[in-house]
């Protein structure tokens, strides 16, 4: 983990814990997010992802440990930080009777963002055609784009997204992904929570796999998968339709060469771990 003094370090989380009543829902969480990076907090429902975001945005105080966001200790965060961060949770906070444009104009005034930035932003997120529509009449995907637009209108340094593509169709999710990668390129630091391991693998520079409040793996998606690539396996489908998963060893080599000799192999692949299979291996739990 990098030192606290790094100028590009926008978020640092150190031994963070949170207790509700008697139960710890976060236990000794450590992570770092630098400028121009995407950090993913991944875990099943109840793992503590939203609680982490709430602590980092000043909505909850931790029980112990520390976190800094843009150099401000999480216990001292107040509304002033909202000039420098954007938050996407759900669509609450959008005024449904106001038009798309008026919603953004309202937030631009609130956050001192230039009104002239609204139209280019609407074009960028594909909502320009819908700018006069009441927000309440947007589709789910359009609403999600509006919520992201509202969160980035004032060009924050850090963007928090709590499951930004949950429930979206694949093409809308893809548009959100493209937008996030563009924002990252522009230097924004993005803190993302998701259940979706494919999304995390594609977008995140680093991921924290969170289970019951504990980070069970932390690193780049590649590092984590490589670390768990010790037991090598092959997946073979034969021409008779049967499927076989075989450990890489002498017996398998002999079996595969026999099947090759008999022209019985339809497909053959090596089984590299994914974040999904790593999570299952480490926790014994599916991510759904
Ligand atoms: N205000 C609260 N009081 C008591 N318990 C809470 C409170 N907020 C959250 N919890 C509990 O803390 C645990 C973690 O909740 P959190 O919302 O952080 O999970 P999550 O990983 O974001 O889940 P999901 O993917 O379902 O959003 C859950 O067991 C939840 O019931």
From TrEMBL:
<keyword id="KW-0813">Transport</keyword>
<protein>
    <submittedName>
        <fullName>ABC transporter ATP-binding protein</fullName>
    </submittedName>
</protein>
<dbReference type="GO" id="GO:0005524">
    <property type="term" value="F:ATP binding"/>
</dbReference>
<dbReference type="InterPro" id="IPR017871">
    <property type="entry name" value="ABC_transporter-like_CS"/>
</dbReference>
<dbReference type="InterPro" id="IPR050763">
    <property type="entry name" value="ABC_transporter_ATP-binding"/>
</dbReference>
<dbReference type="InterPro" id="IPR027417">
    <property type="entry name" value="P-loop_NTPase"/>
</dbReference>
<dbReference type="Pfam" id="PF00005">
    <property type="entry name" value="ABC_tran"/>
</dbReference>
<keyword id="KW-0547">Nucleotide-binding</keyword>
<feature type="domain" description="ABC transporter">
    <location>
        <begin position="11"/>
        <end position="237"/>
    </location>
</feature>
<keyword id="KW-0067">ATP-binding</keyword>
<dbReference type="InterPro" id="IPR003593">
    <property type="entry name" value="AAA+_ATPase"/>
</dbReference>
<dbReference type="InterPro" id="IPR003439">
    <property type="entry name" value="ABC_transporter-like_ATP-bd"/>
</dbReference>
């Amino acid at each position: 983990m990098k030192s606290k003094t790094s100028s590009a370090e926008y978020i640092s989380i150190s031994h963070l814990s949170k207790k509700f009543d008697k139960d710890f829902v976060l236990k000794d969480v450590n992570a770092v997010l630098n400028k121009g990076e995407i950090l993913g907090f991944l875990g099943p429902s109840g793992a503590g992802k939203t609680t982490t975001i709430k602590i980092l945005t000043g909505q909850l105080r931790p029980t112990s440990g520390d976190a800094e966001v843009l150099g401000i200790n999480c216990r001292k965060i107040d509304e002033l930080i909202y000039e420098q961060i954007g938050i996407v949770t759900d669509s609450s906070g959008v005024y449904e009777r106001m038009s798309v444009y008026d919603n953004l104009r309202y937030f631009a005034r609130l956050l001192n963002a230039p009104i002239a930035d609204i139209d280019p932003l609407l074009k960028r997120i594909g909502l320009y055609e819908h700018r006069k529509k009441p927000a309440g009449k947007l589709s789910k995907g359009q609403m999600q784009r509006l919520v992201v637009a509202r969160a980035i209108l004032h060009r924050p340094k850090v963007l928090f997204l709590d499951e930004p593509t949950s429930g979206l169709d694949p093409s809308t999710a893809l548009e959100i992904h493209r937008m996030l990668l563009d924002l990252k390129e522009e230097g924004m630091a993005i803190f993302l929570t998701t259940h979706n391991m494919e999304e995390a693998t594609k977008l995140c520079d680093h991921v924290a796999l969170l289970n019951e409040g504990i980070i069970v793996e932390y690193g780049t998606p590649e590092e984590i998968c490589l670390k768990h690539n010790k037991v090598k396996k092959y997946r073979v489908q034969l021409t008779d339709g049967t499927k076989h998963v075989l450990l890489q060893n002498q017996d398998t080599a002999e079996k595969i060469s026999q099947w090759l000799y008999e022209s019985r192999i339809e497909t053959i692949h090596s089984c590299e771990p994914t974040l999904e299979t790593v999570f299952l291996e480490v926790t014994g739990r599916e991510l759904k």
